[in-house]
Design brief:
- The complex is a heterodimer of chains A (about 350) and B (about 325).
- Chain A has about 350 residues and is an alpha+beta fold.
- In chain A, about 30% of the residues lie in helices and about 30% in strands.
- Chain A has 2 domains: about 1-80 and about 115-265, Aminopeptidase; about 270-335, Barwin-like endoglucanases, CATH 2.40.40.20.
- In chain A, strands 1-2-3-6-7-10-9-4-5-8 form a 10-stranded mixed sheet. Chain A has a 5-stranded mixed barrel with strand order 11-14-13-12-15.
- Chain B has about 325 residues and is of the alpha+beta class.
- Chain B has 10 helices and 14 strands.
- In chain B, strand 2 (about 55-60) and strand 3 form a beta hairpin.
- The longest helix of chain B has 17 residues, at about 130-145.
- Chain B is globular and about 70 Å long.
- The chains are: A alpha+beta (about 350), B alpha+beta (about 325).
């Protein structure tokens, strides 16, 4: 498997994927025209034709027989072309000497704090391929892309994770707060946002801070919590350096995880190496999983590989060379796949 | 013999003190305290123009000499008075052009806008079976304000709000109880004791969205305690109107009128001819007599005798307003 930039020829595959994604993934609509427009936009982005704030780096994950089974995205900077809203979970403390009390109140402040940050978005993996390494490759490849092209992104990355909702898509946070202001269902609001129609957020969302004491217990408990299906994604991002910084999604209260670029594990672990062929005996004893990127921008390819690094050479097998479309001697970016394992060059 | 409203004097103090415990427990009594402290001897000359901070008590006695109703009236706060806190009901309408959605939302924010208003209340109504007594007391207060030329500030009457079967205020449960960190009783006691710094310290910094408040709290907004409904009706019949201000502890309504508005509604009439039944008569205070006011008999079975010292005003209540239900 490998990850590469999306192409116009991927449209039919993405339409097929969108049917599997259902309504939940608003950034992958089953709308041919919209999807085609997004692909076109992404191609222009990879070619450097979009101005800062409009960049939409969209990647696909394909099998070795070129079947597209997933996608992921990167926005170069949110909130530049149109306001980007979150709630900032804050604290208001009041005290009175007369009463002898100190009272803490959690409040939700309307915020545009994440403006200018780069966003991880649009991650979807065909359910038939979940459970293996595909999800990790899909999610981490874009981080390696950022590490390889830091000049194209903001000084910080952000990922808004799916918040708590039940099997019917009902969000307790929305039911307790959003519906009072937006006069629509959670799924409708989420769908509108996914279509790029975000102006209504500014028009309808609360202007004053919200005291969370007025939310239902269920809604308060959902603040900054992720949907059970998103737990592993959260762990993965946290291992890569992301952390919750008191910003949540305005619809379902899912956490916005943030990571300054200089704290991103892959930025610090990425090295430029020369590719060489890995002998079978070494592979079985010394090799460990690496994430590898070859090529630049619209010609880049990324994959995972059991590899062995010595000095500034990365030894990989033939399948990896084929996926990267490289010959031995090529220079690539690489970093250990696992955040928990301390990578050390074997000397 | 028709009942008369008059200003209380120092001689009335023991009886007024005895009646204090029968006032509505949530009605702030600082105006009454001020008025009791300023009670003068019956022979004191009450004609001089009072200063801001001046407070009086208007009262009605029955034919047995028992006080059946009284009201405290504070003629505006003096400079340097601590701010008076209220909640202000406001409405924000969000509009989305893209969705063609209008979303009006009510909010509650803290304000001190009423700090220098004339304050009417607390009120003691002990003849609850007779709405006429309530109307007379309200009319007497009106007469006092109409003849007190210096009164230019708007007049407010903040009514205690509702309570449930256990005496708990649903408004306190939904608002104060979440911000003050103490019991309702403690907050109330400190307020009555004029230790009010805690209000500025603890009241919410930001407006509250009403749709997010508990349903019982929302239902209590601007609703007076049921025992005070006749008083509210009497004031509204005189021209007081419900304002957008609410009592900070119980969410009760604040009725407001301006002196000019009341004057326009109840014009002074000449006493050269017999004023119509129901007219308000007012005898301003003299060197030896207190302020007095009353309503002319509606049955007109007594001959009218003009008195040059008395001022007459058009009937403040519609003649059909013979029952509580007619006044609203």
């Amino acid at each position: 498997m490998r990850v590469r930039p999306v192409r116009t020829t991927d449209l039919d595959d993405l339409i097929r994927l969108s049917a599997k994604a259902g309504k939940g993934l608003t950034s992958l609509p089953s709308d041919r025209a919209r999807l085609a427009a997004r692909i076109d936009h992404a191609e222009r982005t990879f070619k450097g034709h979009n101005v800062y704030g409009e960049g939409d780096f969209l990647f696909v994950l394909e099998t070795d027989d070129n079947q597209v089974i997933g996608m992921c995205g990167l926005m170069d900077a949110v909130g530049i072309q149109a306001p980007w809203y979150n709630y900032r979970v804050s604290l208001s403390v009041a005290s009175s000497d007369t009463l002898g009390v100190i009272k803490h109140q959690e409040i939700l402040m309307r915020s545009n704090d994440l403006t200018g940050k780069s966003e991880l978005c649009s991650l979807f993996l065909d359910p038939d391929f979940r459970g293996g390494q595909a999800g990790r490759l899909l999610s981490k490849s874009r981080l390696l892309f950022v590490a390889h092209h830091p000049e194209r992104f903001g000084d910080s990355l952000v990922a808004e994770l799916r918040g708590v909702s039940d099997d019917t898509g009902r969000s307790p946070f929305w039911e307790s707060l959003g519906r009072h202001f937006f006069d629509m269902t959670f799924s409708d609001a989420d769908w509108l946002t996914g279509t790029g129609n975000k102006r209504f957020i500014a028009e309808l969302m609360p202007r004053y801070p919200i005291y969370t004491t007025y939310l239902s217990d269920e809604a308060r408990a959902a603040i900054a919590q992720v949907h059970p299906d998103t737990q592993s994604a959260r762990r993965l991002l946290e291992q890569e350096g992301f952390h919750y910084n008191h910003h949540i999604d305005i619809f379902d209260a899912g956490p916005a995880l943030e990571c300054p670029l200089d704290r991103l594990r892959l930025v610090n672990d990425r090295v430029s190496v020369t590719l060489a062929t890995l002998e079978g005996s070494v592979k079985s004893t010394l090799a460990e999983p690496f994430l590898v990127l070859a090529g630049e921008l619209d010609h880049c390819r990324m994959t995972t590989a059991l590899a062995y690094m010595k000095d500034e050479t990365l030894f990989v097998d033939d399948d990896t060379l084929r996926r990267l479309e490289c010959l031995t001697g090529a220079t690539v970016s690489a970093a250990p796949l696992a955040a928990t394992r301390q990578h050390r060059s074997v000397s | 013999m028709p009942l008369v409203v008059r200003t209380a004097t120092l001689l009335d103090r023991p009886r007024l003190d005895a009646l204090r415990s029968r006032l509505h427990p949530w009605w702030p009594q600082d105006t009454l305290d001020d008025a009791l402290c300023q009670l003068a001897a019956p022979c004191a000359d009450a004609r001089e123009t009072p200063n801001p901070g001046h407070a009086v008590i208007l009262m009605i006695e029955n034919t047995h000499g028992d006080i059946v109703a009284f009201a405290a009236l504070a003629l505006g706060a003096a400079e340097g008075t601590p701010p008076f806190f209220s909640f202000h009901r406001d409405r924000i309408t969000s509009h989305s052009h893209a969705l063609d959605v209008h979303r009006p939302l009510e909010t509650l924010g803290i304000t001190n806008a009423l700090t220098h208003h004339v304050r009417l209340g607390p009120v003691g109504l002990f003849d609850t079976g007779h709405f006429e007594t309530t109307k007379l007391l309200a009319a007497g207060c009106l007469g006092y304000l109409l003849t007190a030329n210096h009164v230019r500030a708007p007049i407010l009457c903040e009514l205690p709000g509702t309570s449930d079967a256990y005496g708990e205020s649903p408004f306190w449960h939904g608002v104060g109880g979440r911000f003050f960190g103490v019991s309702h009783a403690r907050a109330e006691a400190l307020w009555q004791a004029r230790q009010r710094d805690f209000l500025a310290d603890m009241l919410p910094l930001y407006p509250l969205y009403v749709p997010l408040l508990p349903e019982a709290t929302q239902a209590a907004l601007g609703v007076e305690h049921e025992t005070l409904t006749p008083w509210r009706q009497a004031l509204e019949a005189l021209g007081f109107v419900e304002s957008e201000y609410l009592d900070i502890f119980h969410g009760g309504p604040t009725l407001i009128a301006t002196a000019d508005h009341l004057s326009a509604r109840t014009r002074r009439t000449q006493a050269t001819t017999s004023p119509p039944p129901g007219s308000l008569w007012v005898r301003p205070p003299s060197a030896t007599t207190p302020f007095e006011a009353g309503l002319l008999d509606t049955d007109q079975d007594t001959a009218f005798e003009p008195d040059a010292l008395i001022q007459y005003f058009e009937a403040p209540y519609p003649t059909s307003a013979s029952s509580a239900g007619d006044c609203r």
